[in-house]
Amino acid sequence: MGCIHYVLNWKIKLIFKKTLFFLCLLLFLLSAQTFPIQNLKLSDLVDLKLDIDFRSYAINDQRIYWSGLEFSFGAEAAIRALIKQRFKGGSIEVENEFFITQPFGENILVDNNREDYLANFQIETFSISKLNIQFRVGNFSCKLGKALTPFGRVHFYSFSNNLNFGSPFIRSEAILWRETGIFLHYKLAFLSIDVAAVNGEKNRDTNSGKAGIFRLGAEGENWAFGISHKVHDGFGSEDQKIYKSHTGFDFFLRINKFVLSGEWIYDKYGFHRPFDEECIFWPRSLYFRDIFYAYNTPITGKGGYINLMVESEQIIINLNYGEYYPQKIGNPLHDPPIKRLVAKLAITLSKKARIYLTALIENQRDEEAWSSGAKPFAGLVGVEYKL
Known about the structure:
Elements: H1 10-32, E1 39-41, E2 46-61, E3 71-87, E4 90-101, E5 126-137, E6 140-148, H2 169-174, E7 178-188, E8 191-198, E9 211-219, E10 223-231, E11 242-255, E12 258-271, E13 299-311, E14 315-326, E15 338-348, E16 353-362, E17 377-386
């Protein structure tokens, strides 16, 4: 099969998104002149909650040293809105989360090797993180749209619109942060059940097959644990289809200001059929997960993390350590385990502002000759203002 290379004109593609963003921002700023923007009471039965986060930062990711994009200043914003209408016995909620992210410039170094990773650096200026409608009656709720995945649970903060940066390996490479579909949730006493039928990939589906997600959990005010399973034959069609299934366990325990949590998964990934890796035109993994092993046979892996967080009104300290062990398939670029330590710090400057820092370090692994010079660490420091 011949390679298909797409040359995207980003100025044309993003003109509508940028226009929509500025219209939304103008509406929010105009509202802020006469109302407290965080909580608006539209009527006796309808409430609107709004949050806007503005961030300016510097990022240094030595894992992509070969790209020429490893160090950069940047700016971004996150806009969140929740509309809630109450009725007798329940409520209807509309949840939105939109990310505004400054893209890289267009003059990116490209050659025969770097071209394979070009899609990794094509950042959407405006993206939909969440957009869903939820019906809630008693202990039961039904949500439709794009929402937080019900697979597992996380109990740490992300200081970036790129949720993968500074996250444990199984969250940045295996478990999706968001899913799109229909989500059912039922809670009785301390037990909870989640069932979802979803696309199985980040946005609208590229495969007629759909994924199922199930989670059975128990939770109290200061503790929780659960088991999750995602079954999916993969995203993409025909020779491009890639496995995307996993089974996992999660837990959470809070003692005063200390929060201990973790997740573990058994993972399935890789191409269903032989596929020329040179023809991958979508964002690819830096850890060589987009590869073929055997016909209709997934590659497996297992791993998890432990997370410890201390949180107060003035400071957040977060330490996260995880390990992931891919199946050994005879590929020295794929087979070694990944060990990742993440440290995060946030210090409050005022009621609405704080500075934050994220540092990440991994074990040294084999690399391709052309990408020599890359180092297994990254850092992010920035300032955040909440409107």
